Amino acid sequence: MDKTQPIGVIDSGVGGLSVLKWLSKKMPREHFIFLGDTARIPYGDRPREELIGFVRELTSYLDRRNIKQLVVACNTITTLGVDVIGRGYDFDVIGMVKGSPELQRISRKHRVGFFATDFTVAAGSYKKEIERLNPDVKAFGLGCPKLVPLIEGEKFDTPEMEAAINEYATIMKSWDVDTVLLSCTHYPFLKEEIQKALGPAITVIDPAAMTTERAYRNLAERGLLNDSGEGSLEICFTRDVERCKRLASRMLDVNECVFHEVTLEASQG
Ligand code: DGL
Questions:
Q1: Are 118 and 45 in contact (CB under 8 A)?
Q2: Which domain holds residue 142?
Q3: What is the CATH number of the domain that holds 109?
Q4: Which of 206, 229, 247 is the last residue of a domain?
Q5: I need a labelling partner for 87 at 20 to 30 A (CA). Which of 27, 57, 69, 192 fits?
Q6: Percentage of the chain surpassing pLDDT 90?
Q7: pTM tops 0.85, yes or no
């Protein structure tokens, strides 16, 4: 492997751009290839076996593009396990951060919530990881299936979006948490609205910054940080590039990105 190889970043759609924003800020000399599977989003309500097949298609594409590291900018995919995702490849796989030992300090009540897809909540590993890292903390996960279609459908500032956010915020508040993680990479597109609905007493955390640290450390330890030249951002989707470009402008300077549509090859299993 060499330093100049690109870093791959995957998601089911535009959500992972909220992670790419942090990655590109922290590592401006790196070449990033983002791949969002907008042809088949949402991933969050599909069976595990089907998801594994889809993810294999995303990772094979990026393997052919010769990446040195894969950042899984999707909590639903992360739930499948980095060992499963990376099986048979040379690159390292960095999953989304599920929890942090810091939560013990941040949450005075020792009650931490997370918003995620139904798939992520049902998998149980986020709750387990938060409670393992913080033995005094109790974690509460809430699936928010209405949010991803509304975000991908650009329904910002609509009554439907407001109603959905309020519905989920009301349930979360009833659990008396004081800290909430956005454990779906689409949700930072609504960070302000979610914070407003939860109120000022609740700290909202986007795990993208911690995930970026994890990706950075991994490259530094392997001597693979690109330390010269200018980086680049190539952003690929499997459908609707124009719509995705509009959404991307909420996270990145789209004039600095190259966008295109890609067709994935069916997985060989
Ligand atoms: N952005 C993805 C995540 O972080 C999920 C979106 C979907 O349901 O496809 O979980």
A1: yes
A2: 103-206
A3: 3.40.50.1860
A4: 206
A5: 27
A6: 97
A7: yes
211 lines ligand 1 (CB under 6 A): no
Per-residue pLDDT of 132-151, as tens digits, reads: 999 999 999 999 999 999 99
SS (H, E, C) 205-258: ECCHHHHHHHHHHHHHHCCCCCCCCCCEEEEEECCCHHHHHHHHCCCCCHHHEE
- In a domain? residue 266: no
- Check pocket membership of 185 for ligand 1, CB cut-off 6 A: yes
Q: What is the phi/psi pair of residue 182, to 5°?
A: -90, 90
pLDDT at 170 over 80: yes
Ligand 1: atom nearest CA of 77 is 10
Helices 191-198 and 159-174 pack at an angle, to 10 degrees, of 50
Catalytic residue among 144, 184, 236, 244: 184
Whole-angstrom distance, CA of residue 173 vs CA of residue 26: 33
Same domain, 237 and 159: no
Burial (CB count <10 Å: 0-12, 13-18, 19+), residue 71: buried
How far apart, in whole angstroms, are the C-alpha atoms of residue 114 and residue 99? 10
